[in-house]
Amino acid sequence: MRTRSADKQQLVKRKAIDLLVSDGFEGFSMNKLAKACNVSVATLYIYYKDKDDLIIQVAIEEAQRFTDEVLSGFDQTLNFADGIRQQWKRRAQQLTKNPKSARFFDQLRTSTYNDRIHPFIVGQFKEAMGDFMLRAVANDEIDLLPMNVFWSVAYGPLYNLIRFHNEGKGLTGQPFVLTDEILEQTCELVIKALKK
């Protein structure tokens, strides 16, 4: 019986994300992954039941890694402006440092895997950021908004800037790099739009 190797499993996860981003879900296969990892296909089945199991497990683990990084040390009692600034910086740092992860999450959102993975991606965020938003409402800093409206205004602009940065070009096709100045300028506009 073959044994598990933590290093090999990490390699498999990393290569799986690489291939899923480059080839999409339709072009991804266990054979391609085994070849990219320089292991036998049988080795992959030590860790995962099948292709779907692999994609779901990799997505859940990557979502947990991202959530842990972004929420680490987040103080839900911060005033609204400071909390949003902190979240923008942490999210931007994580998603620009891990552009393949950002693309992977975008692909998941529009895939058939979304319904199975979505609860893991939003679970901790929903609780932490929901509490943060409700505290800001209770402190009379912002109006109560439906969560989808709040997220669209509070974070939608950030995720667009990150996408432009990771693609290397903006809306008009011109080169784009997300600088601290652009991040801060846009964040301040968002705070201004949401604050009473």
TrEMBL record:
Question: Out of the domains of life, which is the source?
Answer: Bacteria
One GO MF term attached to the UniProt entry: DNA binding
Give the DNA-binding residue ranges: 29-48
Question: What keywords were assigned to this record?
Answer: DNA-binding
Pfam families xref list: TetR_N
Q: Where is the HTH tetR-type domain?
A: 6-66
Alphabetical list of InterPro entries matching this protein: Homeodomain-like_sf (IPR009057), HTH-type_Tx_Regulator (IPR050624), HTH_TetR (IPR001647)
Family annotation (PANTHER family): ACREF/ENVCD OPERON REPRESSOR-RELATED (PTHR43479), ACREF_ENVCD OPERON REPRESSOR-RELATED (PTHR43479:SF11)
Q: What is this protein called?
A: TetR/AcrR family transcriptional regulator
Q: What species was this sequence derived from?
A: Mucilaginibacter hurinus
